[in-house]
Amino acid sequence: MSRYEFEKHKQPYLSEDELRRRLAARGSNYEGLMKRHKIHTRNLESVTEALRSHGVEVKVIQKHEYTPEKVNWADVIMSAGGDGTFLMAASHILTRKKPLIGVNTDPSRSEGYLCLPKEYSGKFSRALDRLLAGKFRWRWRNRIRITLEGYQVSHIDPVDLDDLELGAHDHLGPHRDYRYQSESDDERLLHPSERSLDQTETTVLPIRALNEIFIGETRASRTSYYELSVDGRRWEKQKSSGLTVLMRRYNNSLMFDASEPKMTYTVRDPIINGVFSVKNPRGFAKRITIRSRCWDACLAVDGGFSFQFNDGAMAYLEILPEDALRTVILD
């Protein structure tokens, strides 16, 4: 989805002239957006035409139409955009058997590190010839599995951060706990540890993290309070601006090298005083466990989806071989 398509999807009631004026009022250039949109559309059409010319059945869908049912229908998933589109496409692929191939449709404005080389952006037919001839190698990229444990965690729905518009009057809306609307005031005020043990659940989130996970308060100005255990070591109570976990380490392209099954974590702006301390504000890990002590917190995956993660909830982060994402490298 191009930025122009995103704006149209977000504001379908606006005419083109109204959209132009709305963008201008925000300091954005309508003509520039249309130019990038046409480049994206032209390269997308070259992909679909090349595939159909070889008898491949193709379904072109937008981000808001991307569902598990569509993923199950396809033999191969292809993302048309940049790294953000690739990450979004990867999030719903839960098996290592289904390949994901990324095409950078605007290489002058997008790095496309996860996509095919930029030389194929406007000439996808060349890449397709190599793929059909078997002149490629499979590459499995490790991902992070997230398991939540806590009060009715299986009822927590993800918030789509791309479609989210937070109003100044209601920053809590996306993660307001609607599970408690039918409860009495007394039940609603119970600490998670005081609720019935029968309502404690464990669930694996239906999304895998390919790039990064952020855990912390939804309001950036608030201090995040949680307990952290790395690779089974003793728990450490921490206060900070949140915790970031990503795959392995950054390389010179400012992306990750996921060739080794390890995560790297960073405690952001840790508070260190007579009560709280952080022995290792950053490091590598095979398994990370976090217990939330926050009251309006989220667990955000690859910058695309956010899950409520409030006081008492626990998250287990680990890398499993069966969660690896199948991608290609052209020889």
From TrEMBL:
Keyword NAD listed? The answer is yes
Question: What's an example of a GO molecular-function annotation for this chain?
Answer: NAD+ kinase activity
Q: Does the keyword Kinase apply?
A: yes
Record-linked InterPro entries: ATP-NAD_kinase_N (IPR017438), ATP-NAD_kinase_PpnK-typ_C (IPR017437), NAD/diacylglycerol_kinase_sf (IPR016064), NADK (IPR002504)
Signal peptide positions are: none
Q: Name one Pfam family in it.
A: NAD_kinase
Entry's Gene Ontology BP terms: NAD+ metabolic process; NADP+ biosynthetic process
Q: Which residues form a coiled coil?
A: none
State its Enzyme Commission number(s).
2.7.1.23
* Keywords noted in UniProt: Kinase, NAD, NADP, Transferase
Where do the TM regions start and end?
none
The similarity comment for this entry is: Belongs to the NAD kinase family.
Query: This chain belongs to which protein, by name?
Result: NAD(+) kinase
Q: Which organism is it from?
A: Branchiostoma floridae (Florida lancelet)
Species classification: Eukaryota, Metazoa, Chordata, Cephalochordata, Leptocardii
